[in-house]
Amino acid sequence: MKRIIIQYGGTGDLALKKLYPAYEHLMEKGDAFEVIALGRRFSTRDEFLSEIIRKDAPSSFTDHLDYLYYDMSGNNAVSILTDRLKALCGESDEVEFIYYLALQPSLYEIAIAQIQQVDNQLDCICFLTKKIVVEKPFGFDLESARRYNDILEKAFTDEEIFRIDHYLGKEFMQNLLLMRFHNDIIRRIWDNRTIESIEIIFDETHGVDQRLGFYEKIGVVRDTIQNHIMQIITYLTMSEPATLTPKDIAVEKEKVLRAISPIEEFHMGRYESLGANSGHIVHTPTYAAFKLFVNTYYFTGIPIYVRTGKMQQEAKSLIYIKFKNATKQVMHDDSIAENAVIITIHPELTIDISMNLKMPNTSWKSKPVRFRFNQSETFGANTPEAYEQIVEKILQGDKSLFPTMQEITESWRIVEPMLKDNLPVEVYPIRTLPRFAESLAKENGFTWFD
Ligand code: BG6
Fold first, then answer.
1. Residue of 224, 385, 388 best suited for mutating to test ligand 1, as the one with most atoms within 8 Å of CB
2. Which member of 11, 60, 211, 418 has the lowest number of beta carbons within 10 Å of its beta carbon?
3. Residues in domain Glucose-6-phosphate dehydrogenase NAD-binding (predicted)?
4. What is the pTM for the complete model shown?
5. What structural domains and CATH numbers belong to the chain?
6. Which tens digit of pLDDT belongs to each residue from 223-232?
């Protein structure tokens, strides 16, 4: 069967930075598929290739990469796409179209309507199967997500729809589940009897950069909190699924999302503009910090503190799980540190367990020491990028790395109060932590893990 990925947003940031490298690796590994990039930036394939594809890209990739100047609002958009797809199908009698929408959510409606028309015209030329891939954020808020979904589900079956959150393709996410559910010792300590608090820190050094046009309409809540952060929370706190199959995992994740209490102490900021002449004046929030609780039996009472955003001094992505420290009282020694599990995602994937052990040449003095797992030291540096894993699953028709519509709906419900227009937005100088993130920690009696 011939497989063709129809790449909407084919000259956009996501396609260039993440998708084309993923396609290239998969094709090099031997996965057979064609890609047709749709865009308005270039008029010809040659121009597209010479402007944005690496000069030394292997022919195993470029031979399978086509380009079509495509203006969705043009009068004859549908017939232009239909003709090109017909040509790509050639004489094949079995073809799969994978429509990949890397677009602003507001363009979904028109894209899907056009896809339906293209499909109708092509159905007769061969045996046609189809899939549709939609990028995050899916929708703009709860109402629009439901509306887009209705449109999507009228045109595609659930099996054919792949809703993306590329964090599910990340090794650390998959490791979280295995670390929790393949280790008896971890299972026994992973609940509110033992855990005191959780910090999730996602600081990025870059700004919105070339994505300004997209990001301005989105902002930090839709960009990372509604999706990546909510998914991380589900993986950290879900109960054991009956099996590690997509359906069973989804059941448990949905329970967690439904148990999340209203967000507390929420604050947002945007970084100071880089100057009128830089073309980089950001009006939308780029940083946020807040606290929430997952009110399930085993997690209620554990505060989860989140901070996430752009233009920070240091790129730091980590999850800090702090355990209760009864030992301090029991041993009458305030210097005894708490135990902790630290999952670092950036700059490299490591998992540390912090324990107190004896300092040599002391009389009963302990010091926290770390036991470390380092992904690349243990397994080599060849772990596939998230998007590679995601695209591979799409090609295979395996839905294990995709959030369900119920998860997406619940996540919108949780973040909806943070989307109101009239919320205050603090301006923070670039490379500094917004003041509200410091205050959140201070008011809750902790300091962010460093
Ligand atoms: C994307 C967001 O989904 O995730 C970006 O749109 C963010 O703003 C990015 O920078 C972070 O992903 P990663 O894979 O670089 O951690």
1. 224
2. 60
3. 8-175
4. 0.95
5. 2-135 (3.40.50.720), 168-444 (3.30.360.10)
6. 999 999 999 9
